[in-house]
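Sample intake sheet
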Amino acid sequence: MNVRYRVAHRGLASFVVTNPRPRCPARSFRVSQTCHRRVTGQGQKIGEFLGSDYQVDASVGHIRDLPNPSELPPEMKKGPYGKFSINIEDGFEPYYVVDGDKKKKVAELKRALKDADELLLATDEDREGEAIAWHLLEVLKPKVPVKRMVFHEITKEAIQRAAHETRDLDTRMVDAQETRRVLDRLYGYEVSPVLWRKVKQGLSAGRVQSVATRIVVERERERMAFKSASYWDVEGEFSPSSNSGQAFKARLTGVDGQRVATGRDFSDAGVLKTETVKHLDAKLATAIADSMEQSVVTVREVNESPTPAARRLLHDLDVAAGSQPQTADEQPVDDADRAATVRKRLHHLHAYRLDDAVWLGNLCRPSAGA
């Protein structure tokens, strides 16, 4: 008897069994009741593409995971695995158990594997799929050659090619998934109960949500610890003595050689970070303003800062490209031709930065034949 298996999840075929013995009935495709009906259809279709020599069965997702600490064996509850089902004292080694609702499925797969001469693991080609394949390998402990089968569409050509172009299990992706799972447990296991008490029952936190929760908490603590501080500044409106000039406003920046303090000069405690700045209170600011009333001032120096050109948006580029003269062979005869000309001029748009002034200039410059 020559039997070959293949395991997949999310409703795709799990086992592929070859059975060339004459008149030996092929084993049926089996899916647990929790699997969607379309899974059965997919498995049957895959089986048809592979032929009667193959049997297809589904693992229906993950078959094992980290248990809750309360579900650990009594001898492990007091050890390093007791808090998270992870050995936090020795390399963060996880302790896995087969899910209760998957034990029957595992028993079925083990029975089917007894007569096989090759096992093909065909879970999705992502880290979750790779991890599912690894867990199946660890639990089933096959004594036959094992290969990794990957396909991305359920067509006859794709399935038959995948069955002959197999590879080894990618342990790096397995490690990546296991790291993600361990981080979820370490960082989220203790945060979730807090969310249940403070926000809403049933919420969960993992490696991402726990970090976001911490950011919210830290910002709230900063807000609670914040101390307000007041500071004043002085702004005057100046008019030239002759009517030829234009009135302008100016803000006081220094007093007696010291820079006037602004908001960035205060710490979260509401005190000045340095003594080298002048802190204006209401009394001092009012006194300075009153003393400057109707005063004559002289502008000694003017420093001009060039204003950078505004960034051009995609719409601006579209308008610019469409408004440029066309060469004889580009002359549009209708709106469709004109749109095609604009698209032609913008077809390299996504390959360049929109704030590249040199490229923008070249784009909007008329063509040589214009």
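Comment: DSSP finds twelve helices and 13 strands in the chain. The two ends are 77 Å apart (CA to CA).
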